């Protein structure tokens, strides 16, 4: 998930919970323009703490996990040769 997708996630989750943008911004001590910019993908230079506060406010957390990578052509050939 990239920052733009994360912003959209926050937007959709906030709306699904019936929370107005201004209310969330006020509760978190953010400018509404900052929240709006993040949700729309216009503001990508936002601190991690702010993002974590937004997610916590919406009852979500960040859990690190390994990114799965597609195999390369060479690794597929090597795997085939091993069989």
Automatic annotation (TrEMBL):
Q: Which residues form the HTH cro/C1-type domain?
A: 10-65
- From which residue to which does the signal peptide run? none
Instruction: Fetch the SUPFAM superfamilies from UniProt.
Output: lambda repressor-like DNA-binding domains
Q: Which Gene3D superfamilies match?
A: lambda repressor-like DNA-binding domains
Query: Its Gene Ontology molecular function terms?
Result: DNA binding
Read off the InterPro entries from this record: Cro/C1-type_HTH, Lambda_DNA-bd_dom_sf
Write out the transmembrane intervals: none
Which protein are we looking at? Helix-turn-helix transcriptional regulator
Q: Which organism is it from?
A: Marinomonas arctica
